[in-house]
Write a structure and sequence with these properties.
The protein is α+β, with helices and mostly antiparallel strands. The protein has 18 helices and 25 strands. The chain has an eleven-stranded mixed β-sheet with strand order 1-2-3-6-7-13-8-12-11-10-9, sandwiched between helices. An eight-stranded mixed β-sheet has the order 14-15-16-17-18-25-19-24, sandwiched between helices. A four-stranded antiparallel β-sheet has the order 20-21-22-23, sandwiched between helices. It is elongated and about 100 Å long.
């Protein structure tokens, strides 16, 4: 399976959480995900995303969770491309990852997709994930400020929890962190978030705070501290017992992380009955190092679906392009009918508003269909965008591009893909709107013209020379969402048809052997051409050079050769 990063919708986070329910002692499992399900951001600039490699995450539980505090710029390499998400005023990001499967290959590939353009911390990963993180840093060629900072994970068995009776309820609040040894100019917001979004406990005497313990997003006890004057009085143990009782009451395991060299804390936890069950690690890349790295990276930024119409309208509706207005409009229509379709439109570094440089990725089972275009005469930005594609043996089908892009795709094939591309060329025919308006529709006796129906997809696909596994689904969508025409005999049998390809052109033209030489091919072309012409769009068609019969028919109708088009896979 090729790794890729898919955004798990928030309403499916509980599904991911429950996959990890079998091990409540794991610091990057159930309780971590539960924390962020209930997480309340302190500002709209704080964002959280959970990514996985594929739709089977309810089975493998594989995820990368990213918390971006104001303004991290997040870059991910998909199995197809690099995705860049911009958040304003960047400061830092926190990364969590896990999988319930023994195999770490997919998680390792997914993490190597990650390239945060800010200070970031990979948090609380287990010993078994150390090689995954090491591979990430190696692949990024980035030194770390902190490498595998370890902490012992303590667990308090339920049988050892001592109930701590209290007659009062602690007044829990956040104040300036004068006594937290790891404080910084940014740490107040961090601690506020811990208290706001999780359990915490403070030890008070006459309203004054003398000691405290928080619970981290991992679900472990953290930030335990007692003021000097109250040490050796059992205050730390009292706080731990109190918060342990609260956590145990929710059904969670009581866990704590302690630095190995902190002998006093270790002794206290062990005296209370905590047992060491694991070691977890943290690694850091500072912002200054990432800044130099970001200058070297081009990336593909996903264009939100709400902006697809703006992109489409940059292109001339009348331009007979294979990857212009009609292609973008086709996929706008598709996702309006099926929002869950795996269709994405990408741009280089988020720059598409002026020159309209884009790449459309359509996942069609065995292949990813790729469409691309630019209004810029300089093809170097488009070339850079295509260079962001991940190397692959046979994953891509570059679909129906014009001749000016042929050198670009040949360059991509030789330089960035792992095997030589197989190219197929076609003649790009065009009929002016004035010509199409003269077309007449004279239907032979015994023949009825109508739109194709979904049930015709099997027939169309079976005879299509370029069919492939799952291509019938592609044909169904062409029938459902695009203009088409079919000819039926007196028994209702489909005997000829013509569909419209995603690039807006005529395609899949076919006449059954039993009904050839009746002029049905020409009739299909004329009928569908008039439908497209009525939409105010260009009438175009690709024809294989060796298909002399089709070429003769199109030219007899008045279609003109205006270019060549190519398919490469």
């Amino acid at each position: 399976m090729d790794s890729k990063l898919l955004d798990i919708p928030r309403d499916q986070w509980t599904i991911l959480r429950d996959v990890h329910a079998g091990d409540r002692k794991n610091l990057t499992g159930y309780d971590l995900i539960e924390y962020f399900i209930n997480w309340a951001p302190s500002s709209s600039a704080e964002t959280i995303k959970i990514y996985t490699t594929d739709a089977d995450f309810p089975d493998h539980g594989r995820y990368i969770l990213i918390v971006a505090l104001p303004s991290s710029s997040l870059i991910f390499e998909d199995n197809l491309y690099i995705i860049y998400l911009q958040h304003s005023v960047a400061q830092k990001a926190y990364v969590y990852l896990n999988t319930v499967k023994e195999s770490l290959e997919e998680l390792q590939s997914a993490l190597c997709i990650l390239n945060l353009q800010t200070w970031h911390l990979i948090c609380g990963y287990e010993e078994r994930l150390k090689p995954v993180v090491e591979h990430y840093w190696t692949a990024r060629r980035q030194p770390c400020q902190l490498v595998h900072q370890d902490a012992l994970v303590y667990h308090l068995p339920k049988s050892a929890i001592n109930k701590f009776p209290r007659t009062d309820t602690p007044n829990l609040y956040c104040r300036n962190l004068e006594h937290w040894p790891y404080r910084s100019d940014k740490s107040l917001a961090l601690i506020t978030g811990f208290i706001k979004n999780n359990f915490s406990a403070g030890f008070f005497e006459t309203g004054k705070l003398h000691g405290w313990c928080l619970r981290s997003p991992h679900g472990s006890l953290s930030n335990l501290h007692v003021l000097t004057a109250y040490r050796r009085a059992g205050v730390g143990s009292t706080i731990i017992r109190f918060i342990a009782e609260v956590i145990e009451g929710t059904g969670s395991e009581v866990l704590a992380t302690v630095l190995p060299e902190n002998e006093k804390s270790r002794n206290m936890f062990e005296k209370l009955g905590f047992e060491v069950i694991n070691t977890v690690y943290w690694s850091v890349v500072p912002e200054t190092q990432v800044g130099s790295m970001s200058e070297k990276i081009d990336s593909l930024v996903e264009i939100p679906r709400g902006d697809w119409i703006k992109l489409r309208d940059l292109y001339d509706k009348q331009e007979p392009s294979s990857h212009g207005y009609m292609c973008i409009n086709n996929y706008i229509n598709w996702v309006q009918h099926e929002p869950e379709l795996p269709i994405r439109i990408l741009s280089l570094n988020g720059d598409w508003q002026k020159e309209g440089t884009f790449l459309i990725s359509v996942e069609m089972g065995h292949k990813h269909l790729l469409f691309f275009n630019t209004l810029n005469d300089d093809l170097s930005p488009l070339t850079k965008a295509l260079e962001c594609l991940k190397p692959s043996n046979d994953q891509y089908l570059f679909f129906g591009y014009r001749s000016r892009f042929d050198p670009v795709i040949r360059h991509i094939g030789k330089t960035f893909l792992t095997k030589e591309l197989s190219l197929t060329d076609g003649i790009w025919y065009y009929a002016t709107k004035e010509l199409v308006s003269t077309f007449t529709i004279e239907v032979p006796n015994g023949i009825r013209l109508d739109n194709l129906s979904i049930k015709d997809a099997e027939t169309v696909n079976e005879i299509w020379p370029h069919r492939h596994p799952n291509s019938v689904e592609f044909v169904r969508r062409l029938i459902q969402y695009s203009e088409n025409v079919g000819a039926y005999d007196e028994t209702g049998k489909l005997v000829s048809w013509c569909l419209r390809l995603p690039v807006g052109s005529l395609g899949l033209l076919q006449v059954l052997e039993s009904h050839k030489r009746l002029g049905l091919g020409s009739l299909m072309v004329r009928a569908l051409s008039k439908k497209i012409n009525d939409l105010g769009e260009s009438v175009v068609a690709p024809v294989v050079p060796e298909n002399i019969a089709s070429r003769t028919m199109f030219e007899k109708l008045g279609f003109q050769q205006i270019d060549k088009v190519y398919w490469a896979e």
